[in-house]
Amino acid sequence: MSTQATEAAKGAPNAAVDLHFEERGGGLPVIIMHGLFGSLSNWRGIAQSLSANYRVINVDLRNHGRSPHAPGLSYEAMANDVLAVMDRLGVERAHLIGHSLGGKLGMVLADRHPERVARLAVVDIAPKWYPPWHKDVFAALDAVDLQALESREQARQQMAAHVFEPEVRAFLAANLEQVDGQWRWRFNLPELKAAYEQTSDMPALSGFYLGPALFIRGAQSAYIEAGDEERIARDFPQSCIVTLERARHWPHIEDTAGFLDAVTRFFAHGCQDFPAHPIG
Description:
Layout lengths: L2 H7 L11 E4 L4 E5 L10 H7 L4 E5 L15 H15 L4 E6 L1 H12 L4 E7 L11 H9 L8 H8 L6 H8 L2 E4 L2 E4 L3 H6 L1 H5 L12 E6 L9 H8 L3 E6 L6 H4 L1 H14 L11
Helix pairs in contact: 3-4, 6-7
Protein name: Alpha/beta fold hydrolase
GO molecular function, one term: hydrolase activity
Keywords: Hydrolase
């Protein structure tokens, strides 16, 4: 374990850990940050597509995927984790893509360290507090009997009483792994529970990031609503919004072509293709 990871394990405030990541392609760097309960595997298809023109760095956030389990899930600590990856790879500035939890992280990174962020793409999340919409997910995860579990399919069945959407159950079950014949979650479930109120909130932003910021929302999602554009414009003065009509909370999966078109045009031309407009 690195010195940084050791400090984090001892509880040093906001100490960085060594994130697991995958890197591919060449050119301007793009860092991808997944959402709560996710991992970099959810973004491999997007990373592969973008790697034709960019150096894509796809990360597992702390307490997710194959990154270290460490105390705390504050946005400041997660920002330090990403900055440590950038420093390790010699990346001075990068485009950021962040989905949901990763989108809030991207906003904090851009606000606290604007000199490190070239362009910011935020996927289906606004800079605001959210109610506890994931209580059913935590209940579903707790319903999985890891000691007696025989397969991911059995886990999906055990979650069905709390999470009705098959695709969500499949997304969660993908985080199961077997070690020495025993099933376990890759993510750090106790830490995600403990930090849930904190991650549902939004740290105060200072409006220091004056670069282009694209907010991509799913038309069938409730995460970015009418009225949020005023808050977005306040915190990110050079922002714009694009709505993908066929998408819900996972636009990169539900409308991959539309998502890639929006992101590539934004990285090439900034917000000029996406004038700010009310959400309706």
